[in-house]
Amino acid sequence: MMVETAFLSSTASLLWLVSYYLSIGPWMRILFPVPIALVYLRWGNRAAWMSAVVCGLLLSVLMGPYLSLLFFVPYALLGVQLGAMWRRRAPWLTSISLGTLIASFGFFLRMALLSLFLGEDLWSYLTNRITDLIQWGLSKLIDWGLLGLGDLGEINLTTVQIVTLAVVLCSDFIYLFTVHLAAWLLLERLGNPIPNPPRWVQVLMDEQK
């Protein structure tokens, strides 16, 4: 157990390190939680938490505490959470929904840390960009005659923040879905299958074969 846990911890850390320094592509994010989740599926809760802590300590030595924290929250936590859900055979919607909350918390933690280090309010910057996007969308609808000029007024800040939060949650929900899809295809071949996806996903995958 110890050897395999150490190996999978090193694998998760290496994926993060390679993705950060070589900028291979965002697709590698899909694999970040999978090694720790596999530890949970094979050896249980204690081994998974040990693997997550080992990843954090290893990355702290290799990359510094800041980048180590950005891996631990959310990806190491996601690995433990997904492993627990999959071992309990929870449906995809449940594990994806809980994972979305963890991933979104990680996003806002990263934004808070970057705002602290840069001395700028990145949340305000993000909401300003969302405001510009909403205004652009409204202007297009007016050009197409779907809205009147009176609808293009000052946008409420609360509305913009709600839209921004919805965008973050939607993005993380899609990310967790892709993690589930990758794990479903990969872990079955390793002898630790996760719960089957919804029927419509299986139908789509069968059509691609």
TrEMBL record:
Record-linked InterPro entries: DUF2232
Q: Where are the transmembrane segments?
A: 20-40, 47-63, 98-118, 162-187
Asked whether the keyword GTP-binding is assigned, the reply is no
Which keywords describe this protein according to UniProt?
A: Membrane, Transmembrane, Transmembrane helix
Q: Signal sequence span per UniProt? A: none
- One Pfam family it belongs to: DUF2232
The protein, known as: DUF2232 domain-containing protein
Organism classification, top ranks? Answer: Bacteria, Bacillati, Cyanobacteriota, Cyanophyceae, Oculatellales
